[in-house]
Amino acid sequence: MNMILSIIKGFYTTGRHLFRKPVTQEYPEYRRPLPERSRARLILTRDPDGRERCVACYLCSGVCPVNCISMQAIEAPDGRRSAAWFRINLGRCIYCGLCEQACPTSAIQLTPDFENIQRDILKLVFEKEDLLVDHGGKDPTYDFYRHAGIITTLCGKGSHENETPPVNIKTNLP
Questions:
Q1: Rg of the chain's alpha carbons, rounded to an integer?
Q2: The pTM is what?
Q3: Contact 85/72 with Cβ under 8 angstroms?
Q4: What single DSSP character describes residue 21?
Q5: Which terminal residue of the chain has fewer beta carbons within 10 Å of its beta carbon, N or C?
């Protein structure tokens, strides 16, 4: 009896949808609104002064579960670190967002731009020049070197935002 009842329910569902007019949305003309936190194309952002945010700390490369990110670090004469080259293979990327969460400088970010289709898979290997954008992304006012406490030609020890001056440890001795 249950088997016959379930078959009748299945035919009822099929019959109900059989005579409905299909809804077709033409893709290039109508783009479905994406969820607010959707993750797709990766970008490398800049700080408010227009310099690259990436300090080549290798955290994004280390946390990536499919090892699609690689880079090499260099240090400028003023003490700032940056990536000499930054490469990501979007053909291997699973868009998990772990690289964005691991980045201490908010340099690497995921955008809702999902149109990354290529016929040749080698065209999905993006270099630093392909990923750099001229804005700060989701947090445009954040500057890592103003808060990090790293000595550069711009700021010395104890002169960063919300940082106390260094303590002379000899004054703490009994």
A1: 25
A2: 0.70
A3: yes
A4: P
A5: C
